[in-house]
Design brief:
- The chain is an alpha/beta fold and 735 residues long.
- The chain has four domains: 4-156, Response regulator (Rossmann fold); 177-301, Beta-Lactamase (2-Layer Sandwich), CATH 3.30.450; 310-470, Alpha-Beta Plaits (2-Layer Sandwich); 485-732, EAL domain (TIM Barrel), CATH 3.20.20.450.
- The protein is 43% helix and 22% strand.
- It is built from 27 helices and 28 strands.
- The strands form six sheets. It has an eight-stranded mixed beta barrel, surrounded by five helices.
- A hairpin with a 3-residue loop joins strand 21 (511-522) and strand 22 (526-528).
- Bound molecules: ligand C2E and magnesium ion (2 copies).
- One magnesium ion binds at residues 636-637, 657, 693.
- Residues 480-734 form the EAL domain.
Length: 735
């Protein structure tokens, strides 16, 4: 807008928008409120006209007091203040303004020309000074510059505010990061670190700034850390996720939660350069990095690793870790030409303890034994639990067999002392097989297998001892293997046969029953007795199939007896532990009986005491169930096991078969001290029938007669015989 104004009789041309220092009338001027304070009305008016022309919002006041009132009413950007006014002069007004309205700028106007009043006004906070009379462009310039300055200040203030907000935002983000964020200077000292360091390491950021990074790194990890902390590369080549440990602050003031003393971190870092484009050595200013606390993850990994490679009961290494160590030891021995030994240790009779004292006591025994074994060893030896009661031991760097024999003897010696379990003293012994590298095997599997074979060898020869592997064991092992295959074939090719041995009433010589005994018609070896193959069949599980066949065959035979009218006799069948454990055992027995027409009381199952004791609860349930179907139960080989008669009371027992060893002990008909006497007394008490096994002499028969033992079985009374012959005997009724 171009206009011309007259002021104090003078006329001025239109204002030039472009002139420097002058403020063009703009929409912004409208937002600037100017308060003109002058006691001269003419003066006020003309200034107002002028300001209007520039587009400012103009207010007027004729006195200092009025000016202050106006200021109280609304905010004013700029005050044109006359210094010379009656009542309240400009200085007094300024004083109030400064106090109550510090945002209002003041330009003083006065006729006084002295330097003092001008400087005084400026000292009191006036922005500028105009001397009366002044030309309109001078007024415009002064106002323009004050307004300009105000705007600049406002802008600066705004920029400052935004900067501060942004700084606060970034600080918040950085300090609340779950990771440590830091910067190092070019000499590896911390120039910045966020507050996370306090929670993780116990230092305040101020303490860390200035420290060298190596002061925070675990001494064992320095080498690794140096590469990451000294990172000068940027981009994808920079360090990513390097793992190492940082130490926590120590000393009395250290934070109590830093018990671990160090944390594991994963560090990513990159070099920082003055000029982003130019990555020259002289432009390197330091490193920026982020360290993440991965201690928790590490701990979890450690636990998982521990569980993967250890037996949790004994805390010993497990088979996987043993194999790992053995494989390493073999490669090392191969390189250095040294020797090592693998020991296979199997606890003798662990099962008996476990079954009679319970699993908790069994666990406790294993723990105690493991600790004792461990105490016999050197740091470099590895003892592992590889099965229920089986341990493997690796002894590296041995000079010869004598070294290992010493270890084995030490172990056996250490175990001589009994372990007290639930008030009982339990004596523990081990069968130990030893294989040496390189002579007994070159590979891990062969060494373990040969140590195992040697262990079985010593087990078979009375347990509690050690034995070195030798080639003849291999032959034995191969015989076992071919025997196993032979049993499989025998089942397919019907090479098994049942023989029958009479049970005789000693008083009237009548055959009252038979025991079915298994025979194997081996194509090459001829007739093989059960003692030569049943243990292996039990070990391999083949006994289940054999047992099923025996039951089926025995019931078929009973069916045949019934058809011939011989069905008033009992047929006894031997049962193994594994058969009893089969979930459908009773069902199979009952089905076989039904299928072949076997009546109640005709079939008697013989089971040894130890099998019964393995799982008494199971035996009670199953035999009660079978008894309800008319199946009789006999305890075989009674007297050599660990059971007590009171245990047996809970079973639906019919017969006790007194073990052959007690019968053979009977020397004369007047043998009073015989244990048999006691057994008979007890059996009578429990209302059980008694069968004396292994009767071979007339003296024994006479003795049994005196004891009023009704039944006996033995070579004297009848050897095991084929089915047809047995039926013939039954037909005749006497043996
Ligand atoms: P057992 O059940 O105690 O059978 C009695 C064993 O003593 C039989 O041996 C029998 O031939 C033998 N014997 C009988 N009278 C005399 C004697 O007067 N003197 C001597 N020295 N021995 C006598 P066998 O047939 O060799 O059977 C051995 C063991 O094999 C049996 O002992 C039994 O535990 C087991 N067995 C036999 N057949 C089977 C079967 O079908 N299944 C299962 N699971 N085991 C069986
Ligand atoms: Mg028997
Ligand atoms: Mg027997």
């Amino acid at each position: 807008m171009k206009t011309s104004v007259s002021w104090l009789g003078a006329s001025y041309g239109p204002l030039d928008d472009q002139r420097q220092g002058e403020v063009p009338e703009t929409a912004e001027n409208k937002e600037t409120t100017v308060l003109v304070v002058d006691d001269e009305p003419r003066m006020r008016e003309s200034v107002r006209d002028l300001l209007d022309a520039y587009g400012y919002t103009c207010l007027l006041a004729g006195s200092g007091r009025e000016a202050l009132r106006r200021l109280d009413e609304r905010p004013v950007d700029l005050m044109l203040l006359d210094l010379n006014m009656p009542e309240m002069d400009g200085f007094q007004v300024m004083q109030q303004v400064r106090k109550r309205h510090p945002d209002t700028d003041v330009v003083v106007v006065s006729g006084e020309t002295t330097f003092e009043s001008a400087t005084e006004a400026l000292r009191q906070g006036a922005q500028d000074f105009l001397r009366k009379p002044y030309a309109p462009d001078e007024l415009s310039r002064v106002i323009g510059s004050v307004v300009h300055k105000r705007r600049l200040e406002r802008n600066i203030h705004e920029v400052h505010r935004r900067l501060e907000a942004s700084e606060q935002r970034y600080r918040f983000i950085v300090n609340n990061s779950p990771d440590i964020i830091y910067m190092l200077d070019d000499r590896g000292r911390f120039s910045f670190i966020n507050e996370r360091v306090t929670a993780l390491l116990g230092y305040t950021p101020d303490e860390v700034v200035g420290m060298h990074y190596s002061d925070l790194v675990h001494e064992d990890d320095l080498e690794k850390a140096r590469f990451a902390f000294d990172e000068r590369r940027t981009g994808s080549r920079a360090s990513q996720n390097v793992e190492f440990r940082l130490v926590c602050k120590s000393g009395p003031q250290s934070y109590r939660y830093f018990e671990s003393r160090s944390i594991t971190i994963e560090l990513s870092a990159m070099g920082m350069y003055r000029d982003r484009a130019e990555r020259l050595e002289q432009g390197f200013v330091g490193t920026y990095g982020v360290a993440r606390d991965i201690s928790e993850r590490k701990r979890a990994e450690e636990i998982i690793n521990y569980q993967l490679y250890h037996d949790l009961l004994t805390k010993l290494p497990n088979r996987a870790l043993f194999r790992d160590r053995l494989s390493l030891a073999i490669s090392r021995a191969r390189r250095s030409g040294s020797r090592l030994a693998v020991l296979f240790l199997d606890m003798d009779r662990f099962k008996v303890v476990n079954d009679s004292l319970g699993h908790l006591a069994g666990d406790q025994l294993l723990q105690t034994v493991a600790a004792r074994l461990d105490a016999c060893l050197r740091e470099s030896d590895t003892l592992a639990r590889v099965g229920g009661d089986e341990f493997n031991l690796l002894v590296p760097d041995i000079d010869g067999p004598e070294d290992v024999a010493r270890v084995a003897r030490k172990i056996m010696d250490r175990l001589k002392e009994p372990v007290v379990l639930e008030g009982y003293e339990v004596f523990v012994s081990f069968s130990i097989g030893i294989a040496l590298f390189p002579e007994d095997g070159q590979s891990m599997d062969t060494l373990v297998k040969h140590a195992d074979m040697a262990m079985y060898h010593i087990k078979g020869r009375g347990k509690n001892g050690y034995e070195f592997f030798s080639d003849h064991m291999k032959a034995h092992y191969h015989r076992q293997l071919s025997l196993e295959n032979g049993i499989r074939r025998a089942l397919d090719e019907r090479q098994f046969e049942l023989f029958y041995q009479p049970q005789v009433d000693v008083c009237d010589q009548r055959v009252c029953g038979m025991e079915a005994l298994l025979r194997w018609n081996h194509p090459e070896r001829g007739l093989v007795l059960p003692g030569d193959f049943i243990p292996l069949a039990e070990e391999t599980g083949l006994i289940i199939n054999i047992g099923s066949w025996v039951l089926e065959q025995a019931c078929r035979e009973l069916g045949a007896w019934n058809r011939e009218g011989l069905g008033d006799r009992v047929l006894a069948v031997n049962i193994s532990a594994a058969q009893l454990e089969e979930p459908d055992f009773e069902q199979r027995v009952v089905e076989a009986m039904k299928h072949h027409g076997v009546g109640r009381g005709q079939l008697e199952l013989e089971i040894t005491e130890n099998v019964l004791m393995q799982d008494m609860d199971q035996a009670v349930t199953k035999f009660r169930n079978l008894a309800s179907h008319g199946v009789r139960v006999a305890v075989d080989d009674f007297g050599i096991g660990y059971s007590s008669l009171s245990y047996l009371k809970s079973l639906p027992l019919n017969t006790l078969k007194v073990d052959r060893s007690f019968i053979s002990d009977i020397r004369s008909r007047s043998d009073k001290n015989s244990i048999v006497t006691a057994i008979f007394a007890m059996a009578r008490e429990l209302e059980l029938e008694v069968v004396a096994e292994g009767v071979e002499s007339q003296g024994q028969v006479d003795y049994l007669k005196r004891l009023r033992c009704p039944k006996a079985q033995g070579f004297l009374l009848g050897r095991p015989m084929q089915a047809e012959q047995a039926r013939e005997i039954l037909r005749r009724g006497l043996h």
